[in-house]
Amino acid sequence: MPKPEKKVKKPGRAIKFFSAVGGGVFKAGSGVTGATRRIGGAITRREAPERADEVARRLQELKRLEALREEERKEERKLMEERVWEERVELKRPLSERLSEVFHVPLKRPAQRMAKFFKGMDEDLYKANIRIAPERYIALVIGASLIAGIFGFVLIALFLSPLLGVICGVFTFLLALMFGKTHPRRRAKARVVGVNQVLPYALRHMSTQLSSGIGLPETMTSVSRAGYGALSEEFERVIHDMHAGMSMEEALVAMNRRVDSEPLRRATRQIQRTLRTGGDLARILNTLADETAFEMRMKLRGYTQSLNLLTMVYMFASAVIPALLIVTMVVAAGIAGAPPFTTETAGVLFLLLIPFMLFYFVIIIKRFEPRL
């Protein structure tokens, strides 16, 4: 027999009411949560671009500050390099130029008054390659002479007497003044001697450079950097004049006016003639170098021959003449009945005569020295 079906109880009205209220509350909560999520997402999406823009602005500001800092560092490095370079350039300047600036301010008026005594100083300074204005150089000479005079006065006054110190100070001042006046002229002559000594080597240098196909201006620049002393300095001045706007012929004429050297004049005349008419300048310069070297050898040969003769004269004068003089004085004293010639007198005679003769022969040998 089939089992009888159980009857399902239907929920009451109270249960249906509370179930309807709970379902409504659940739906309302779900709607509020979704709206909250939607609002939060919209706010998040709206704040994200603002934060990204703020970060970008901050990064750009940092980059700008870093660039400014880098520029400041570059300016500081540049100023330091310029300061170091100025110090190096200042140290490379000759001491005479720096001292002339020191003495020029207090001694400007005395230098202007003594300009007549230093007549022709501008030309001598130009030839001697002393790059100081004549007025500044005169102030330098006066200042150095005053220092030398004061030193001489103090030295003699301390050891001897103040009167002799005054005389010695005045004499030292005048001597230093004359030395400073003649210094540029003597230096110009010494530069001529230096130019003549290295001229054959420089001409062969130029001939080799021209034979290899290098131009004349580049060859002259090479000579100016080759270390030929005064000749390299003169070629450097020629290059500087050419850069200043002078032609090569004008610059060479100016060099001839500065350097009183006949071999250099011959070389510059050949260069000028070749520039005007053309020709094999390398071969001409090589020939001039051989001629200049031959003249130097002949002058040295004549100088050595004169030295041999002077050496014999000096030996005769230093050995024979004093003994002959002593014998003559002793014999004369014995014949005339005068007191005999003492050893003290002979010693004084030798101490005075021999150094004087030596100094005199040194001067003669120096005057016979050839100006190559």
Structure description:
With 372 residues, the chain is mainly alpha-helical. Among the domains are: 57 residues; 92 residues; 74 residues, no CATH class. 84% of the residues lie in helices and 0% in strands. The N and C termini lie far apart (160 Å).
The number of helical elements comes to 12
The assigned structural class equals: mainly alpha
The count of DSSP E runs of length 2 or more, i.e. the number of strands, is 0
Task: Give the termini distance in whole angstroms.
Answer: 160 Å
What is the typical, i.e. mean, pLDDT?
A: 76
Helix percentage: over 70%
Rg, nearest Å: 50 Å
* Biggest beta sheet summary: none
Q: State the order of secondary-structure elements, H for helix, E for strand.
A: HHHHHHHHHHHH
**Approximate strand percentage:** under 5%
The best one-word shape is flat
Q: Which consecutive residue ranges, at least 5 long each, have pLDDT under 50?
A: 1-9, 25-29
Q: Which helices and strands occur, and which strands form pairs?
A:
Blueprint: H1 13-92, H2 95-104, H3 108-113, H4 121-128, H5 134-159, H6 162-211, H7 216-224, H8 230-243, H9 248-258, H10 262-277, H11 281-336, H12 343-368
Short overview:
The chain has 372 residues and is mainly α. Helices cover 84% and strands 0% of the residues.
